[in-house]
Structures are given as C-alpha cells and as structure tokens.
Specification:
single chain, alpha+beta, T-fold, 9-stranded antiparallel β-sheet, 7 helices
Length: 304
C-alpha cells in the first residue's frame, strides 16, 4: 500500500505537493484569502490525480493515433490532446505530456476556486502559468536539469501566447533519444510544451557517434513506453563542431513546430553551445545570470 499524497508549506510560503513520481511546487499571488482558497483547491484535486492516471496507464503508454480509444480522466484527456498535433510526423505516446498536463490540471483547479493575480505550478520543470493583465513571470533556463545553473531567462507577460514552459534532455527525469543537456520550450500550454520539448531534445543528436552511449529503453526501465528504442544514458566529450551539428538538427525540429503553430519558441543547450528558435527579442535572454529562486532539488527553473 502506497503512502497517501503529501502536502506541506515551504518556508517562503509556497505549497509543495508530492505523490509517488509527481512532485509539485506551487505559488499563487493575490489577496491572502484567494491564495489560501487556491492552495486548498490544489490539494483537493492533487489527492486524486495519480490514481486516475494509473487506471488508464496502459492506454497512456500506447502510441498516439487518430481514432484511438477515448481517455476518461481529465488529465489523460489533456495528455492525448497535447500530443495530437505531433503524431502524424513523429512517434509519441500521451506520456510525453504527463508532467505538463498534471501541472495544468492543478492550476485549473486553483483558478476555478479563486481570482488570482498570477500563479504557477511547477512539476519538476514543466510549468503551467496563470497571468492576469499586466502580470509577468521571469523563468530561469537551466544549463542542465541536474544542477541549478542558469544560461538565460525568458520573460513572459499576459500579452504573450504562452501559458506553459517545459524542459527535456538526456540528463532529466525522462528518457531522451538525443544528447541535449536541456531544451526549454514555451507554448500555449504546459502539456504541449512538454511534448514538444521531448521531440526537440530527441532531435539534438549525432547518430552513431562513439562517445554517445545508448541502450534500449526497456532494458533501463521495463515499464518504459519507448520499448526497444535506444535512449541516451551517457554523452562523452564532443567537439565544438559536433555540438554545432547536433544543435542545428534540434533547431530544425524546433522551427518545424514553431511554423506549424505548436510552439512559440525554444532554447536549446548542449555543452557550451546554445540556440534560440522563435520568440520576440525580449522573450529569451541568453547568458543572463538571473538568481536561482527556490532551492527545491527537482525544479528545473527559477520562477519569479
């Protein structure tokens, strides 16, 4: 029997929710009564999410396809809808959007319960955002998901068509077919950003390179939805030219989805190299050493 969902307030007032593989950092801004109501709503909705997902796990791990079985849970619906724009050209299962979809669902519960100036739900670096008029967020972009060092920042305002941020890469929580240290995507929703970041990180690659160690996903995790696909488990030394080739490949993938309207922009990082795709001039600022706000080990972004 697993432990019940955990809820606690951090020293700075943020809400931390944890249940199995789901680990959320939540912050809301507004009148005190509204913030407390939003946090209470987040806790109530969070208590049911993991069990709901587990009932449909087999379907969520299957490749997304038109006319496939309908999902019953709200989070599962969000996941299936998020991967739909990509499935005609790329292999994806709804699991590619799970972290972003969970963040969205919790944020939706919060904003339904209270009027907030702004709020975010950070699910291990996949972030759903709520902004009222004239509100903004500054998101720190990490060089690597396994350490809190920033190579830039993205400023998101209420006027932008951005309500979700996600990061993927071989050093992160999920498997990657590529070698990107981090690919950060901003999109209209956290679930879509989550799925797109997965695909773009997969494309940052140098196939057949001897310094890149790969293994079948099912050998690393028998429950993986990637089956026998080779996932990256280590990346050795790469030359600056090789880094440029890999980033160029990822940038082409990012531009494909930007032109298709699926994402707004993407920032790609590998070693000391980086690429920006799309976005207005003030959206991404590279090499801006913004302070890392928050000390939770699993967060991939500073949010302010």
């Amino acid at each position: 029997m697993r432990e019940p969902p955990q809820s606690r307030r951090l020293g700075d007032g943020r809400l931390h929710l944890h249940d199995g593989p789901i680990d959320l950092i939540i912050e809301a801004f507004g009148e005190l009564q509204a913030v407390e109501a939003a946090y209470a709503a987040a806790g109530r909705r969070f208590a049911t999410i993991l069990d709901e997902l587990c009932t449909e796990l087999a379907l969520l791990r299957a490749p997304s396809s038109p006319g496939g079985p309908l999902m019953e849970g709200r989070v599962a619906h969000r996941m299936a809808g998020a991967v739909a724009p990509f499935r005609e050209r790329r292999f994806l299962t709804p699991m590619a959007a799970v972290a972003g979809a969970v963040a969205e669902e919790i944020l939706a519960a919060m904003t339904a319960a209270a009027t907030l100036e702004r709020a975010y739900v950070n699910n291990g670096g996949d972030i759903a955002l709520h902004l009222s008029p004239r509100a903004k967020f500054t998101i720190g972009m990490v060089e690597r998901p396994d350490r809190p060092s920033l190579f830039g920042r993205a400023t998101i305002t209420e006027r932008d068509r951005v309500r979700g941020v996600a990061t993927s890469g071989w050093r992160g929580r999920s498997f990657s077919l590529g070698v990107a240290d981090a690919v950060t995507v901003v999109a209209s929703s956290a679930a879509i950003a989550d799925a797109a970041a997965t695909l773009i990180a997969n494309a940052v690659d140098i196939p057949g390179h001897p310094a890149i160690l790969r293994a079948p996903a099912r050998d690393v995790d028998p429950q993986s939805d990637l089956g026998d696909r080779l996932v990256t488990i280590d990346v050795g030394a790469l030359t600056s030219e090789e880094i440029d080739v890999a980033l160029s490949s990822g940038a082409i993938e990012a531009e494909l989805w930007r032109r298709a309207g699926a994402i707004e922009a993407a920032a790609l990082r590998l070693g000391e190299g980086s690429r920006l795709v799309g976005g207005e001039a003030n959206l991404y600022k590279v090499a801006s050493r913004a302070p890392f706000l928050g000390n939770e080990k699993k967060a991939r972004h500073a949010v302010g």
